[in-house]
Amino acid sequence: MIEWPKGEVVRVAVALAIMANLFLVPLTGHGEDQAPPDTTGKADPTASEKKPTAAPEYVGSGSCKNCHKGHSKDWKVNPHRNISEMANRSLARDCESCHGPASLHLEAGGGATGIINPLKTSGQAINSMCLSCHAQGSLMEAKGSLHLTHESNCLTCHAIHNNHQERLLKKPQTQLCQDCHALQVAETKLFSRHPIREGHMQCSQCHNPHGAKEKMLIRNTVNQLCTKCHNQQVGPFTFDHPPVSESCLTCHKAHGSQIRGLLEARVPVLCLRCHGNTSFTHDQSQPNKHKCLDCHESIHGSNFESRFFR
């Protein structure tokens, strides 16, 4: 048996203790400063300090009135005020139908936190929000309309809290259309025009701004639109004038013209576009003496004469 000197025994013991602390503690997972794992099944007392963010909840429009007094006053006469009474509306929650649940917004004391501001969201999100309710009747074609696919959205024309214009428009309809369609609106101020400037007609009588199957967003075929007001030109006739049957726009302009009757060109120039090879009885070099319509009066169609005479 080896006899160790007394001092050597102390040094060996210290060395073994250090080695145990270096190698055994990582293997066991706890040391003097680390408590052993909890095997009692009790929850960590610090877990309550790490609560996840609460999900927003609906609080009702009554809470909105305290801060948004102006909008609350306008809401009483706003067309959307009856949204909570409408049938089949899963999100019928007044203000929160569009702005989302407002509990976090209230907890934050207002501001931009915890609330949806449609003006600061994408155009696609705005359209989806509106079309969740407004996707019937004349709005059925809205999702594929030219307006919504050309960097426009519902709030380009409508102001939801504006009660001063019909259909919540931002301004009178003609002025609103003029922002993009300046040429067409300018034509409505020419010598021969539809009575839009006088307020007897509106753009939406012929066009559906929310979408249509016909070109240029017109509500129906050209002839069906025109004859809705100009019913004296409605056939069928025994003798049809082909250009009239095809489209009124063959001879007429829709928005305005410098020539009487909204014509594309003056007679006989207009007539000669189709009848240029016709052998005329009269000298057309002097159109002021002999006008086509002096004899061919029933130019839209006739039940008596194939040449549309009187």
Give the number of helices.
Answer: 12
Count of DSSP strands: 4
* Rg over C-alpha atoms, rounded to the nearest angstrom: 40 Å
Strand order of the largest sheet: 1-3
Largest beta sheet, briefly? 2 strands, antiparallel
Write the H/E string, N to C: HHHHHHHHEHEHEHHE
Multimerization status: single chain
Helix amount: 25-40%
Based on Cα principal axes, name the global outline. elongated
Helix-strand makeup class:
mainly alpha
**Average pLDDT for all residues:** 80
Residues in β-strands, percent: under 5%
The end-to-end distance, rounded to whole angstroms, is 146 Å
Flag low-confidence runs: 25-34
Tell me what you see in this structure:
The longest helix is centred in the first third of the chain and has 23 residues. Among the domains are: 121 residues, no CATH class; 83 residues, no CATH class. The strands form 2 sheets. It has a two-stranded antiparallel ribbon with strand order 1-3. A two-stranded antiparallel sheet has the order 2-4. The radius of gyration is 40 Å and the shape is elongated. With 310 residues, it is mainly alpha-helical.
Quick structural overview:
With 310 residues, the protein is mostly helical. It is built from 12 helices and 4 strands, in the order ααααααααβαβαβααβ.
Give the SSE layout.
Blueprint lengths: L5 H23 L40 H7 L19 H5 L3 H5 L15 H9 L22 H4 L15 H6 L3 H6 L4 E2 L28 H8 L9 E2 L1 H5 L9 E2 L11 H4 L19 H4 L5 E2 L8
Antiparallel strand pairs: 1-3, 2-4
